[in-house]
Design a protein that fits this description.
By secondary structure, the protein is α+β, with helices and mostly antiparallel strands. It is built from four helices and five strands, in the order H-E-E-H-E-H-E-E-H. It has a five-stranded mixed sheet. Helix 3 links the parallel strand 3 and strand 4. The relative contact order is 0.17.
Length: 128
C-alpha cells in the first residue's frame, strides 16, 4: 500500500502548500477508493485526500459502516494524520473499531482506531 500511496502523490493538486496528501479507503468487500488533496486559491474550497477517497466510495453507492480501513500519507517524510474535518467525516461513516493507517513515505506506519483519533465524536445524537 505504501507504494500506491507514494504514486498517488503525483495526482495531488497542491500548488500553494506543496503538501501532497494521498489516501486509500478500503471497503469491507475489498474494493478500494483513492483520493488526493485538491487545493484552491480560496483555501476553504480545497478538499483533503481522506475526504476525497471516502466521498468517492459514497458516490459509488457505499454506505455508512461499509468501510474497513483507511490509509493516509503526506509527502513530507513524516507520519500523515487526518485533519479534524476529515476526522469528523471518518467518525460519521466508519465503525469505531476501524483502523486508520497513518503512513510516511519512509515506510513507517502508525495504526489507530477511529475511536482513538476521534475520542469525543459529534454525531447524530448531538443533534436531537
Amino acid at each position: 500500500m505504501i507504494e500506491k500511496l507514494i504514486e498517488l502523490h503525483k495526482n495531488s493538486y497542491s500548488p500553494y502548500s506543496h503538501y501532497a496528501v494521498s489516501a486509500i479507503a478500503v471497503m469491507k468487500d475489498g474494493q478500494t477508493f483513492q483520493g488526493v488533496n485538491v487545493e484552491n486559491a480560496a483555501y476553504g474550497a480545497s478538499i483533503c485526500a481522506e475526504r476525497s477517497a471516502i466521498l468517492s466510495a459514497i458516490s459509488h453507492g457505499y454506505k455508512k459502516g461499509a468501510f474497513k480501513e483507511l490509509y493516509v500519507m503526506v509527502n513530507s517524510g513524516k507520519i500523515g494524520m487526518p485533519c479534524f474535518q476529515c476526522r469528523q467525516v471518518i467518525s460519521e461513516l466508519f465503525d469505531k473499531n476501524c483502523i486508520i493507517h497513518c503512513c510516511s513515505t519512509k515506510g513507517e506506519i502508525k495504526d489507530y482506531t477511529v475511536d482513538q483519533i476521534c475520542p469525543y465524536p459529534f454525531g447524530e445524537d448531538d443533534l436531537k
